[in-house]
Fold this sequence. Notes:
The chain is 40% helix and 8% strand. It is built from 19 helices and ten strands. It has helices spanning 3-19, 25-30, 39-42, 46-61, 92-95, 109-125, 134-162, 185-200, 217-232, 242-256, 290-300, 316-319, 348-353, 416-429, 436-446, 462-476, 483-490, 493-496, 536-541; strands at 81-82, 279-282, 313-314, 354-355, 359-361, 364-366, 389-390, 412-415, 499-509, 512-522. The strands form five sheets. The protein has a two-stranded antiparallel ribbon. Strands 2-8 form a two-stranded antiparallel ribbon. Strands 4-7 form a two-stranded antiparallel sheet. β5 (359-361) and β6 (364-366) form a beta hairpin. α14 (416-429) runs antiparallel to α16. The radius of gyration is 24 Å and the shape is globular. The two termini are 48 Å apart.
Amino acid sequence: MTNKRYYSSLLAICLIIAASACTKINDYLDKAESGGVTEQALFADYVQVEGYLANMYATTIGAGDWMPQTTFTYAAASDDAKCPYNFSYGTINYNNGTLSPTNNPIDIWNGAYQNIRKANTFLKYIDNVPAKTAIQIDSKPRMKGEGFFMRAWCYAELMKRYGGVPLIDRVLSIDENLNIPRNTVAEVVDFIAKDIDSALVYLPLSYPAVNLGRITKGAAMMLKARVYLYAASPLHNPTNNRDLWKRAADAHKAVMDLKVYTLDDNYKTVLHVRNSAEIIMQSTINQVWQVVAQDWVRHTEPPSQGGGWGNLQPSQNLVDEFEMANGKMITESGSGYDANNPYAGRDPRFAQSIIYNGSKWAGATINTFVGAGVDGLNTNTASTQTGYYTAKLLDENATLITSYRPGNHYWVFMRYAETLLGYAEALNESSDAPPQEVYDVLNLVRDRKNVKMPPVPAGLSKDEMRLRIRHERRIELCMEPHRFWDVRRWRIGQEVFKDIYGMRITKPTSTTFKYEKFLVEARTYRPAFDLFPIPQGEMERNKALVQNPGY
């Protein structure tokens, strides 16, 4: 399937949607998700089915956790960052304790079940879709695998947010009882695993360049591993059943054993390249995302870079987590940390992730000290409120200055570093003491070619290793959509999602700086926030639902 054909199909399906007009609910239920033709007619046309699947990619996965709103990422609703804007649909709802069944801007319940209906419809008809050419005949099984994955993805995202949810594995009609109770987390996890196993029968390990971004066997296996990791975590495994941790470890090891993925040599650019052996799953063909990428650059760049809005400002909490290059924390004896020169000699991932006072960016020097100009602390609305801007999520080749260049921004949903860190976590938790394999995979992440951090200390206890793994996960995956969820599944929100700090830098002389850590924002977190509330509208429509505790 060529790019042209792919987008023509997507355009066709969108035109069908726009042209449709449904006046009766029963008539609507007889029609396809695309609207204007019956399901039978749509699924009798292979090209239209390709468009239907393209629509599933766009609505089911989209930009995912990367841009739940165009104004922020989940990192700004964690202790890793601050968003300077208090939009009613932004991070303020997760930082001030106002999350509720009627106030959750990134609620996905309705959208997820709409996409599950699409997947159920697709799976109902796909076997009977006529395939006439050799390409169509070869592609149809793969499409079926994608359909199973899409349904599994929806349920994985629902489970991550709400815990147990109603399982619907077929297209429901208006005449059925739609008061459907929640299934248990274990039942949802088993359902996801079954769908993934079905998908694996049909999905390939890789694709030619024209289909880059499609779901692969490795992506499906990694989704299962991620779901198992969440199910084994304290949020869903309060008795610490080691069998659940072992299941998660085995699932991550299966991805490793594919021997398809390796760590990229360049940590700085791994999120900005199309072809990397580290990427397990990323957004589909780049052109689909150019408008989003332009928004991303505008929202994330420092103000001096063509009027960036600086929406994602790293916290001092995160900065302090970066080790010194010798492997010691900044508070450890012998670390060499200098409070008067705090950014020197740090883990190389620090400068590749965070723009700090004096950083070179796109040929310019970014100054964040008080009075430095538009990039200086609290100069204006877009200026940093923490003393930092984001580097990692921006392609340094992108610019808003003079002529806009979007750079390369691909939303990476899964990468091999996550696989290794998930394996280390699950293997440590399923063991009495950390086996050598845990050290090996952690040190592999730390030994990336342009990182080269020292190995973790030997002889750690299980509890000490747990903290090391969580630390490494926070650093390696910083600013990516993980910390927001990791803290919830570990149930440590009240401990870490509280006071957010920044660095106030002043310049008492023309050649010296003074550094002062200060409180940026006091936040509110309750144990109930480990799960999202089921939206109130759904509670009123479906009388069989039971709300999550604390709401």
